[in-house]
Design goal:
Elements lengths: L1 E7 L8 E7 L7 E11 L1 H8 L15 E9 L11 E5 L8 E5 L4 E2 L6 H21 L7 E5 L4 H12 L3 E5 L5 H6 L3 E3 L6 H8 L4 E6 L6 H6 L1 E10 L5 H16 L5 E5 L6 H16 L7 E6 L3 H9 L6 E5 L5
Parallel strand pairs: 8-9, 8-11, 9-10, 11-12, 12-13, 14-15
Antiparallel strand pairs: 1-2, 3-4, 3-6, 3-15, 4-5, 5-7
């Protein structure tokens, strides 16, 4: 029996994404074989395909940062999950496929009442938002924050979780996406036509408590400029090259040495431990089940149509999330 996956065959545009047929095998000890129900399309999928990351898989490889799926069979010694369970994992690679093999102790159980396309968005985008807001820093009701890149998958997660936390939010987004920010009570700033430092300095002369930045180290100086003394910028997301990685590391050290009472903290899921991830995923699943959050999904595509979804994400027109799903879920 075989299954299909989408493979990056070389560095480049979506033309390098090819559908490949693979033979199913029995899972190894400690593994589960999982039929994938949903996988998000995220910016990192594009960057690793193009080659804009410091530490990269060499082609050919299967992209895909996370998944929700159904356990089909188990390797020897697996006790964490059972056949028929709905599960999810943060993978970095491998989720643009009809099946995946994954270590069972790295899986999280997903309530079957949740829609797979919505639940899968929580595994990366909402995890970044909840961990940076409540683990890297500890936001509290009434805090003032700036979300840089407020209309994307992580940005809209910040908006929803920030509203639940009763934050006063400012968000950078193009004018066509401002209605989304307003829906969650955020004050939108058009980064094309407005200087956000000037806007926020006028509105908040004492400065902001936090800035959440996933758009690159080029925002460090201006992000720090709008913070109060004692304020913190949280930077997440990987740099686009090894040189940019070194520059980022240097800037983090430099700006944290400046005697202005402000600091920058870095966050990356690759450095995280699985147990805090599982704790926060369970919290997010509960919030979704209770209707307190609801991921914005712009479009769903069959898993093997990943190239079309990548094209749409690269267009810059997406507010929220794109998700690949098993065809029966369309």
């Amino acid at each position: 029996m075989s299954y299909k996956s989408v493979v990056v065959t070389a560095r480049g545009g979506t033309e390098v994404l090819k559908i490949v047929e693979n033979e199913l095998r029995e899972p190894l000890p400690g593994e589960a074989r999982i039929r994938i129900l949903a996988a998000p399309v995220c910016q990192d999928d594009i960057e690793v395909r193009i080659g804009n990351r410091p530490f990269l898989e060499k082609p050919p490889f299967i992209p895909g940062y996370s998944f929700v799926g159904e356990v089909e069979s188990l390797g020897q010694g697996v006790t964490e999950v059972a056949a028929g369970d709905r599960v999810a994992a943060l993978t970095n690679f491998g989720s643009y496929a009809e099946y995946i093999y994954w270590q069972a102790d790295q899986l999280i159980q997903v309530p079957k009442v949740l829609v797979p396309a919505e639940a899968v968005v929580l595994i990366l985008n909402y995890l970044v938002a909840i961990q940076t807001m409540h683990r890297v820093v500890q936001v509290k009701a009434g805090d003032t924050v700036l979300i840089i890149g407020a209309s994307g998958g992580v940005g809209t997660a910040y908006l929803q979780l920030g509203k639940l936390a009763e934050l006063k939010m400012y968000g950078l987004a193009s004018a066509s996406k401002h209605n989304t920010l307003l829906e969650y009570g955020a004050i939108p700033i058009d980064y094309h036509t407005q200087d956000f430092v000037e806007v926020i300095s006028d509105a908040e002369p004492d400065g902001l408590d936090y800035v959440f930045n996933g758009m690159g180290e080029e925002y460090f100086e201006r992000g720090l400029a709008v913070l109060r003394r004692g304020g913190v910028m949280v930077h997440y997301g990987a740099p686009r090259s090894f040189g940019r990685f070194l520059l980022l590391a240097g800037k983090l050290i430099l700006y944290n040495l400046l005697p202005n009472g402000k600091s920058i903290k870095g966050y990356g899921t690759h450095r995280g431990k699985i147990e805090p991830f599982k704790e926060d995923w369970r919290t997010l699943f509960q919030l979704l089940e209770e209707g307190k959050i609801k991921p914005m999904i712009v479009a769903k595509y069959p898993i093997l149509d990943a190239a079309k979804a990548n094209d749409l994400l690269e267009s810059g027109q997406v507010t929220g999330n794109l998700v690949l799903v098993s065809p029966e879920l369309l």
